[in-house]
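Work Package 4 report. The design task specified in the project plan requires that, given a folded chain encoded as structure tokens, an amino acid be chosen for each position. We show below one input record used in the internal validation round.
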């Protein structure tokens, strides 16, 4: 699914109107009726007081349409026009007239107005600003928003939580409506997925408003959602006449005294993701524990006892994942940089491999083109430097991926993949996955997919999707707190089964939260 920009939303609007030969108010009617239908299906005529706050643009127009339908269905409705500008949109005015035709006269709020009383059992429809917000709300509008937030009433925001920009972080987070539910039109917005802005709309749903399918197909989105629908386009189920050689040989290099478990998790995850053969390469201290716990994995050791002092030529393995639990001591740094210099094909670099590169920025050119880097935010900061806010972070990640011709997988609540000037936002996963070893599992999974011949970008996308899905399936049994990396590995099988079979009941990527 595409994440559109502001210009693309407006263009989708125009294209829909011209393709259907309808006026703007007809599309507004259709969009806002979907919002009304959603609410009516849940309220079922309950006698709760509904307070509709409308701006004076098209988002406000949507609010007026919802208010009219609520009145027509017998709800108790108070309508407020938040009069922040003299420039009313045409479709707002059309719907204001229609509302007045129902003998409903809204109350106008401006700078001097007292704040309306809202009981905690009420429902607020927030239609003050939509995607048109382009500057901070006036102080009195910010006060009104804070008042709505503190009312305790249930808040349904239309299209955007008012006060939230589409493309930047709000100057004053207290002046953004905190939506209990956000019903957004046509496509999700990038802000829903970023930590600083996603908090205003943790529960959202996309409403299809019959937008022009031709435009939606052809629009080139800078960001895309990674969901089941997307990864199924390149997932390759196994074929009958294949053998283990068909599925490649993955080499996982890492580990140090006390951190052999990181390699064990990655190697196990590579196997569970379908690699035909897996070799783990660890310092001597890791030999016995790995051999004892992973009978399917071949173990190779390097001369150092507690850390790598040199790293082997890759040999028969086709694909390498390196860095988990490896340490960053001087000998490891030297061994790793020398090893990287010799690598010609894409590798997966994780954890300490990234930390070593951050210590040696002049050696970043040694990363083979098409390699996959999987930093968590701390590792990313060491690689690209600090960022001002979440949008700056995206920009820096895109620039880094472009400059080093690599695929950057930035781990987080919504893991994001950056490659070739584009961003991909993962939709699977949950807070239980913020647990020791979860990243090692992801690295192992992606390495296992690379070994099977997936293109690096596909391996990264399929890996983050399956990893998150395995985490969701695991957490459905354990809850968030008890979810462990081992449990995530155990759930990879079910994530694959769902990919080739029917979707899980909770797999809808037109909703979040
Ligand atoms: N296809 C769709 O998605 C549909 C969307 N609809 C709805 O339309 C809005 C977008 O409507 P728009 O009128 O463009 O914008 P807003 O309603 O969000 O804002 C109105 C104007 O307010 C001005 N503005 C911006 N920031 C501020 C501020 N801080 N203080 C005061 N005024 C502000 C700005 O105009 P300027 O000329 O003053 O810059 C805005 O244009 C979308 O979100 C949907 O809800 C349609 O209903 C149908 C289909
Ligand atoms: K809104």
């Amino acid at each position: 699914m595409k994440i559109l920009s502001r210009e693309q939303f407006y263009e989708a609007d125009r294209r829909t109107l011209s393709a259907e030969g309808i006026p703007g108010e007809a599309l507004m009617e259709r969009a806002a009726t979907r919002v009304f239908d959603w609410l009516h299906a849940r309220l079922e005529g309950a006698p709760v007081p509904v307070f509709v706050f409308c701006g004076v643009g098209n988002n406000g127009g949507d609010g007026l349409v919802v208010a009219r339908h609520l009145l027509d269905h017998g709800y108790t409705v108070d309508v407020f026009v938040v009069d922040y500008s003299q420039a009313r949109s045409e479709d707002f005015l059309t719907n204001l007239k229609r509302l007045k035709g129902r003998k409903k006269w809204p109350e106008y709020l401006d700078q001097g107005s007292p704040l309306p009383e809202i009981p905690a059992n009420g429902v607020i429809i927030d239609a003050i600003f939509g995607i048109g917000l382009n500057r901070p709300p006036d102080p009195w509008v910010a006060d009104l928003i804070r008042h709505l937030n503190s009312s305790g009433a249930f808040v349904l925001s239309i299209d955007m939580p008012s006060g939230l920009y589409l493309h930047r972080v709000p100057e004053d987070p207290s002046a953004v409506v905190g939506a209990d539910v956000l019903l957004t039109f046509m496509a999700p917005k990038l802000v829903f997925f970023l930590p600083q802005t996603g908090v205003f709309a943790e529960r959202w749903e996309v409403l299809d408003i019959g937008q022009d399918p031709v435009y939606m197909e052809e629009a080139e989105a800078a960001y895309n959602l990674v969901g089941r629908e997307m990864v199924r386009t390149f997932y390759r189920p196994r074929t009958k006449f294949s053998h283990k050689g068909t599925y490649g040989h993955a080499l996982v290099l890492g580990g140090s005294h006390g951190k052999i478990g990181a390699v064990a998790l990655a190697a196990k995850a590579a196997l569970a993701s379908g690699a035909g053969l897996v070799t783990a390469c660890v310092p001597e201290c890791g030999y016995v524990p790995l051999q004892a716990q992973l009978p399917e994995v071949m173990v190779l050791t390097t001369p150092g006892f507690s850390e790598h002092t040199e790293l082997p030529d890759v040999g028969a393995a086709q694909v390498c994942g390196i860095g988990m639990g490896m340490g960053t001591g001087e000998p490891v740094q030297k061994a790793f940089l020398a090893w990287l210099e010799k690598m010609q094909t894409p590798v997966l670099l994780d954890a300490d491999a990234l930390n070593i590169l951050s210590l040696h920025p002049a050696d970043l050119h040694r990363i083979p083109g098409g390699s996959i880097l999987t930093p968590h935010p701390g590792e990313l900061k060491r690689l690209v430097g600090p960022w001002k806010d979440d949008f700056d972070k995206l920009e820096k990640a895109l620039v880094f991926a472009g400059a080093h011709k690599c695929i950057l997988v930035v781990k987080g609540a919504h893991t994001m993949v950056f490659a070739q000037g584009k961003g991909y936002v993962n939709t699977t996963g949950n807070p239980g996955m913020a647990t020791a070893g979860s990243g090692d599992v992801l690295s192992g999974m992606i390495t296992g997919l690379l070994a099977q011949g997936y293109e690096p970008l596909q391996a990264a996308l399929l890996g983050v999707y399956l990893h998150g899905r395995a985490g969701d399936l695991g957490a459905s049994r354990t809850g968030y707190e008890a979810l462990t990396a081992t449990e995530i590995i155990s759930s990879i099988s079910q994530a694959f089964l769902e990919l080739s079979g029917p979707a899980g009941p909770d797999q809808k990527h037109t909703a979040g939260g």
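The longest helix spans residues 456-478. Validation will be extended to a larger panel in the next phase.
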